[in-house]
Amino acid sequence: MNYCYILNSRKINKYYIGSTSLSPNERLELHINKSYGNKKFTAQVDDWELYVVIECESKKQSIQIEKHIKRMKSKVYITNLVKYPEIIDKLKLKYC
Asked: Whole-model pTM?
């Protein structure tokens, strides 16, 4: 299984968008434990929470959805993914 995921930090009021073939909880732990290095964006704080998890059919689909969300450059768009789950369904169809 592949996933596109969004993390949220309340301390810095920021989101992090990524994709993974690990379980989202495993990936979250890697970010919190600074497994990717102390200079990475997610190493700034330790209060990351899973905000959105999108199950994808393939690695390609998860990366395409990740890039789409990043291109939007919008906190409103990210909050709307939670508020209106049909947006996620449309993204999955668009990038199948």
From this structure: 0.94
